[in-house]
Every structure is written in structure tokens, then in C-alpha cells.
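Internal ticket #5521
Category: modeling
Description: The requester needs a full-assembly model to guide mutagenesis choices. All entity lines are attached below as received. Residue total reported by intake: 848.
Assigned to: D.W.
Attached entities:
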Amino acid sequence: MRIVAEHLSYTYNAGSPFASKALKDISLTIEEGEFFGILGHTGSGKSTFVQHLNALIRVPSSMKKYKPKKPKKGEVLPPKTVLTVGEFDLTHKKTDFRALRSKVGMVFQYPEAQLFAETVKDDVAFGYKNFAKEKPKAEEIEAAVKDALEIVGLNYEEIKDQSPFDLSGGQKRRVAIAGVIVTRPEVLVLDEPAAGLDPLGKREIMELLHKLHREWCKTVVIVSHDMDEISENCTRAAVFSEGEIKYVLPPSELFAHSEELLSLGLDVPLTAKLCAALKARGVEISCDFTTEDFIRSVLALRR
Amino acid sequence: MLKDVAFGQFYPVDSFVHRLDPRLKILFLIAYITAIFLAKNFVGLGACLFVLVLIIIASHVPARKVLRSVRAVAFLIVFTALLNTLFYHGETVYWTWGIFSVTKEGLIFSAFLVIRLLLLVTCSSLLTYTTTPVALTDGIESLLTPLKWIRLPVHELALIMSIALRFIPILMDETERIMNAQKARGADFETGGLIKRVRAIIPILIPLLLSAFRRADDLGDAMDARCYMGSKNRTKYKKLKFGWRDLIAFLLGAALVTGVVLMRIYLVRAI
Amino acid sequence: MNAIEFKGVDFSYSEDGAFAIKNLNFSVKEGEFVAVLGHNGSGKSTLARLTDGLLSADKGEITVFGTPMTDKNLYTIRKQVGIVFQNPDNQTVAAIVEDDVAFGAENIGLPREEIGKRIDFALKAVGMEEFRHSTPTRLSGGQKQRIAIAGVLALKPKVMILDESTAMLDPRGRREIIDVVTRLNKEEGMTVVLITHFMEEALLADRAIVMNRGEIVMEGTPADIFERHEELITYNLALPRIGYICKQLQAGGMDVPDTLDYEKLAEEIAKCVS
């Protein structure tokens, strides 16, 4: 499913003294099959954007109470907002938002905070049962839960009857992810999927996301502060700052703008720092900013 | 100022009323409520209304904001007024039906009651519009201090209140996050009967409680680590200060109460 | 004098459960900066809690500046040892920054003027003076943790323990915290125990300790520990990306030393290729 946003704006607490513009007329297209990165600080608008994707935040024109404004004489209306995910038009009132949510999985930061059921099995089944059109059979549920737990790398038989609260941190996160992907979403959105994990845990989660991207969800969108995570994994990345999108580029081109990124208060990957430090010493390196390509390029220089 | 607002209906502008000592505002509210109930005629209530309008103007809170707080209790006010009109036994009867009757005295009494309730609600909400929750807790703690003599754990109560205030926005955020996470998993909080809705709360309530307990645990450790041992030998950094503004407001409040009392004594017979 | 000393300390969370800390002997000198590394569940946080008397040892002896850890000395020890915890949201008591920083100082009964001075000092030390009247809810994670550090500093402790205080922060927040503690150590002579699972953060320490299953398994300067990177991996600790790059360049036949400082690595690469 292709994601298209055009002229999308959003204001929190509109019309009150606390009003704050979170998105200012942004446009962005994410193609099917991408492993897309979204960068930016807290408050840059990236979370607001991402929450639009499965209608946790709704475009005003899709709300029941919405009445289109009639332009006053001489007034120019702002350009029409477009927001589509595959065949779903998110600006329309009659869109089946439940069906949309089953197709766009959303993994929040620290997703283990959403665990609630007595057993791992029940927790993972929650989403499956909620989205089912008719009451699913027990075998169907079990099969779906088993598949979801196994793809995230857990042993179904061992873990299914345990309490999710007795698991280790990394296991909890996997169970929480299984609870989202159990409906086989086509788009999987994750907010800081590796936050708070130790380095090994981080690496394992990134490996898991690649596996999911290959075998389970066509499009993966990750929101991250960690530039190394973006440079190593993403096909393209969008940089959000103060409600606007500054860049949409593949990492190999994006991190050539190191100075601009730093001036936005963002970090750059280690490889970009090394390239800049080398350039300052008169050594030009051309690489796509992945660790492996950097090493290859440096070694190639010597030979 | 905006960023200092924790939550609630505090209206972030800078005004004479906003800057008053919270203790004074609380005392003023008590005095004002007393005045409302002492006023036995429309002149007395008129005086109270006049003072309230003055305060609203001085507070820079827009009138429609103030009136919104009335809307929340409108049903209650209408209901009370209706009951009083129908059941009040007066002399000049306009209409009767069974046990119900509408009398002149009943109508006057109800009108009185409605005005009183309106004034009461408006001035109470004005306190929360113009005082941050933090200032309010400080004020309450300071005013309750004499009760330490009867062994009321004033310090602990105030600490509990201020920690609650501090964590309410965090827990509200968290509730929203968990709700969003469960909504994204297809949870439905908006449709269905009572039982279905109550059941729908469980996936929010359990994670929220667990998180609250974990936070409480963490906070307890952090407080212990910072040498918290209860109120024993504890000092306080912030002392509330009473300034010229407070003096003016104090005089105004005193004048109002005295005025209403005098009117009650001397004017009652006149009307 | 040793700031902290553990002698044969055992601790377990449940009666019959596994040891969280097993026969631990460990000391930190006054003014030293020690990094304690270990994956989640290695016992490193238990170490912090034992040092401050939030947990009490099953066996063995713990002393802080020569004062043995007993119920009677708890208050004395806590005045000397400050802890900054992991979750930036769960450590602030008050809804206004200065009130929160004042909390500890109020607890030990300091006079008002002194508390005011300590707030000035503590907020300045963490570079948060301008946020004195703000509410913590609206600050970033790194700023919240700096407020937590200030709250500890207001007690003027001699030892500061950071118990995974950077784990929930973004890279910028992590850097802010590491900068603040390094400065406190260098300029104020503060003894620092930095508990973390990020090898990069251990770099600035005088000494690094690696824990695994409640025991100390490696000890030395950060450079020593880094040398033994194969061993680190067996304790579920990853080599930082820059370390990996050094190793790969060496394997490719380039003569660069092990370093975790990217400027230095660039310098060395430039030397090799020119």
C-alpha cells in the first residue's frame, strides 16, 4: 500500500490559548515496499504525522461533525488535503477506519506498556479478535497467534501460557510487536522500536524488523532518533523539523547534508562524522554511509 | 507562563487576580460564599454580583470561558429551581395541580436560589481559572498549618496533593498512549452496551495501574535517596508572601461581607 | 580513602532465588570516575541500590567513606551518596523545577537562604538556570535528567551514582548527561559511578568494571576492556560501532589503533592513506 500525504496540516487544541501547530502543510509519499525512516526531535511533528496513518489522529474532513466551509467573497481556500493509504482515503467520512487499522499496524514507543492479558496467547489474540469480521474459530485464533509469536522469534509452546508480565524486557517487546502484527498488516509503523534496550537487544530488534519486512509486512516505517539506525537500515528517510519536512532522501544522499542536519539540532551517523573529520584532513571518502560501505571505501583508498 | 500550567482549567494570562496570594483567594472565596448566603434580598445579591463582575473584569478571563463552567451544572440548577417552584408553599397562588403549586413566593425563592448557585459556581471556577494547581496546594497547606496542633498530618497531605498534581499530566498522557495503542489493535471504546464498554476499559486499566505502581515505587526510591524522612526537621524553601495587591483585595472582601451583613440588618424591613 | 567499599557482599531478591549479587568485592576511591557495564539483569543496578541502602545486603559489609551501612547510619550515608535513576519522569516530586531541586535540601532541614543558594548552585552546575520556574512535564528527557541531577546536587553529596540514567534518553540527551557528570568529576572532584550498557559512555571513566550474573568479570581502564572485545561479547555486551570499524580496518590490513574517538580514528586513517 502506497502512502500519499499532500497539504496535510494539524493543530493541537485549535482555538484555545494552548493551540500549537504540529504539522504545517506537509506533503510526503512513501512507496510500497520501502523501509522508511522518519527523523526529528520530540515536537517536530513526526509522531503527529505517524498517528495520522492509522487514523488515531483524524483529518478534520473525515469527522462526522465536519461541515465544509463556504469561502467568503474573495477568500482563497487552502489547497485540498490528500491523505491516502493504499485504497483508503483518510479524508473521507465513509472510509472504513477499522479495516484501515487492521492493515496499518502501529507499534508505539515502549510497546510493552500495552500488555494487559493474563497470558501471552490472550494478549496477542486481542487484536486478531477485535478486527475479525465474524467471530473467529478457536483454531483460527491459535494459528494466527502461533504464527505471529514465531515470526518475532519466540517459542509458541513455551511462552503461550506464561504471564506477559513475567517475561524479560526484550521478550515483552517481542510479544507486544506480535500483538500488532497478528492481523498481518501491510504497513507496519514503529515509533523508536529499540528505545531503552541494551545494544544487543537493539541489534536483535533491528534484525527482527528486517525479517518482518521480508516475510510479513510490505512496508515498514520507523521513527527514530538514532541516525545509525537510519543509515544502516532505511531505503529513504524524511527529516521533520518544527512541523515541516526538510528533506526526503535516501540515507546515502541525506547524510551528505551533515552540516544542515547538525544545525537543525539533529545528530548524524558515525560514518558521516568520520567522513567529515576525514574531509577536514584532506581525505575525501564517497560511501553510502553504511558501516560496511565506509570500511570498504576506506580500505579501497589505501590500495 | 504557559509552560507552568500543569493541567486543569487554569487560564494563562497575567492579571491582578492571577497575582494575588492563593491563600487570600481561598479566604476571599469563603467570605464571598458566606456573603452570598447571608444576603437575604436582591440588593445584597446585586452587590455580590457587582463585585463578581468587577473580579471577572480584573481577571482578564473571557466572560464566555467563565460562563462555560456554569453550563456544566446548568441541569442541576434548573432541576433545583423547578422543584422549589413547584413545592414552595406561598400565599399568592398562581396555579395548582395536585400536590404541585406555583406561587409568587415560590418564584421569588427560586430566582434567589438560581442567582445564588450561579454566583457560587462562577466564583469557585474563577479561583481555578486564576490560580495554578501548585499555588492552590501551597495555599491550602499554609491555611491548614494550624491544624497540625490537632495532629492532622498537614505536611503529608500537602505532599500527597502536590505529587498527585505532578503525576496527573503524566498519567493522562500515559492513558492516552495506552488508549491509542489498544485502538490501533482494534479496541473499540465508543460503541456497544454498558457491559461491553466496561469490558473495553480493562486493556487500558491494567497497563495503567501497573505503570502507576511502578512509578510510585520509583518515586519512593528517589525520595528515600534524597533523604526524605517525613516532616521531622524539614524546612521549607517557599514562603507565600502577602503584598499590597493582597491588602487591597482583603479590604474589598471585608467591605463586601460587612456591606451584606449591614444590608441584612437594616434593609430587610425596608423591602 | 575509599568512597565506597564492598566486602564479600551477597544479595538475592527472593528467599530461595538466584543471587543478584554474589560475593562481591569492590571499591571506589574518592574522586574516581568508575563505569559499571553489564547487560540487563547483570546485577549492576542492585549494586547502586545496595550502596545507598535502598536494599540491604544478605551477607558481607558495605562502607561509605568508612561509615558502615547500618540502619542508624542510613541518613548519614544518603547525604553523601546521591543516585539518579533511569526514568526521567519518576524522580521529580514537585511540579516546578526549583521546588523539586529544593526537595532534598528541605529534607535535611537547611535554612531557607542556604536552600536558595543550593538551588542556584545545582541548576548552574547542570546548565538549567533558565528553567528554574518551569514545570518538568514540558522538558525533554535529557533536561528532566539534568533536573534530577540538580536535585541530588542540592544535597552536596560526595558520590554520585547514575543508575542507567541515560538508558531512556535520545543521543542528544545522553550526551548532555555524560557532559554534566564528566564536568562534575573533573571540576568539583565528585566521585562518580556510572552504570550503563553503552560502552561509549564508559570511555571517559578512569576505570571500567564489567558485571555478569552478579559478579565482576572484567576490570581495567576502558581501553583495556575494549582491547578484550571478544570477551565482552560473551557477556552480551556489544562492541560500539566505532570499535567494530577499527577492528575491520585492522583486519583489512590497515594500521589503525583501537579507539572509540572518531576524531582520533580519522587522524589515523588520514595518516595511513596519505
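Resolution: model delivered.
Comment from assignee: The beta strands of chain B are 93-97, 100-103.
Ticket closed.
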